[in-house]
Amino acid sequence: MNSVGRPGTGSTDALLTDRNGVGSALNLVGVVVVAWSTARSFAGADVPVLVVVATGVALLAWAVRLFLPGRAGPAVAAVVMVLLAAPGVMASSAALVAPIMVALVVLGADLALPVWLGPSLAAVAAVIVAVVAAVEGVPALVLLGVLAGLAVAVLIGVSRRQARLARRREEALAHRVAEAEAEQQRSALLADRARVARDVHDVLAHGLGGLVLQLDAVEALLEAGRTAEGTAKAADARRLAADSLVEARRAVAALHDPEGRDGAAPSLPAASGAVATRTAMSGSDVSGAATSGPVDAGAAVPDPGASGGGLVPLVAAHRSFGGAVLTEGDLSLRDLDDAHRAVVVAAAREALSNARRHAPGATVELSVVHGSDAVDVVVTNPLASGGHGLVGMRERFAELGDGSVVRADRTAGEFVVSMHVPHVDGGPRS
Q: How sure is the predictor about 174, in pLDDT bands with cuts at 50, 70 and 90?
């Protein structure tokens, strides 16, 4: 039985339960004092030899218990202390009640031992003491005092056991809390990585799609002998590639510095909108170049800052890439706060990119309906669409956690992406 107490558990633990340091010293002092007092009491009385021998063994067990390794040895020594000291309690003028009390406290407080062991030994000791007291004619008050001491020792042992159980529960709870916090941090990290993966997918899919169209335009211009315009278009393509790379790096950097403490430029949703604008401006004449028609190098796309952003840059970019889109409603999404607007823009960007990949040349319908308490956005194109972006759309909307939903359905030969986003009272509007 390892009864070494915890630091700071008090002098009672040091005297009654510790087997090292101050506790061992105090126990040894107790052995010496009780042995001296018992010897004086026995010297003037006719004490049976068996009682003297039993008393000596009990005191020896008290001293040896402090240095026995493991659990079984000290526990057996404590049991010996109770059973062999009890017959000599009255002859020692109650001095031998001390080792019995120490043993009862130790046995009662040890969580490795059954809880009934201490009280059971106390009852046996009480019976032995009562029988001896009755035989020797010891006054009832003396007997009651000894029995009260045994009861107090049992209560102290049970109290120490409960305190240790409480500490153990607290430690287990703290361990579970630490594990839960670690798991929460791990889940947050995985969620951040998934978000960054979605953002990188959006940026690269949109940017690389535009880059391919830009390079097609360069090829068409060079074949038509319009070298100067082809060179300018190649420069636009290079800028588009550089911008996409910058935004991809921003997405990865957001995983390490989500609050933007390093002074990096806009957060990813805003930056992604900027990519859409730059893409549209850089590729504003792709359609004309691809058909070898006149190139309108001065075509401009509305500034998202001036127009309120929203879906306007995406529509302009889609048209500049040669796509046809019919719009209905206010594309600025002014009724949504920044977080909801960013999610809707990301989903619409993915839907338009999918339409260009899987339904090239087909007319896409984009409608925005502003209701009293929500905004509904629907993107429709004639052919089925797919890709990892659809999963990303659902994940983005699920993260909002306020009833925002996105659905992708195939209906009557059309692929329809529907978004439903509630208004957020008090949210920032643009």
A: very high
pLDDT digit string, tens, across residues 281-306: 333 343 333 333 333 333 333 333 33
Residue type, 183: E
In this structure, which long-range contacts are made by residues 33-40, counting pairs with CB atoms below 8 Å and at least 24 apart in sequence?
A: 34/59, 34/62, 34/92, 34/95, 34/96, 34/98, 34/99, 35/59, 37/92, 37/93, 37/95, 38/88, 38/92, 38/95, 38/96
DSSP per residue, 147-191 = HHHHHHHHHHHHHHHHHHHHHHHHHHHHHHHHHHHHHHHHHHHHH
Per-residue pLDDT of 28-51, as tens digits, reads 888 899 889 888 888 877 888 898
CB 315 within 8 A of CB 366: yes
User: Do residues 16 and 81 lie in contact, with contact meaning Cβ atoms separated by under 8 Å?
Assistant: no
Cβ proximity of 272 and 203 under 8 Å: yes
Average the pLDDT over 145-173 and give the result: 93
Identify the helix (H) or strand (E) that includes residue 216: helix 140-223
Spatial distance between the Cα atoms of 101 and 157, rounded to a whole number of angstroms: 9
Residue 392, both tokens: 């990303």
At position 148, the amino acid (one-letter code) is A
DSSP-derived secondary structure letter, 230: H
**Mean of the per-residue pLDDT values of the chain:** 76
Instruction: Check residue 426 and give its pLDDT.
Output: 47
Residue with tokens 């202390």: 81
- Closest to 314 measured CA to CA, from 305, 297, 306, 302: 302
pTM score > 0.85 for this model? no
CA nearest neighbour of 310 among 283, 272, 279, 281? 272
Measured CA to CA, the distance from residue 33 to residue 36 in angstroms comes to 5
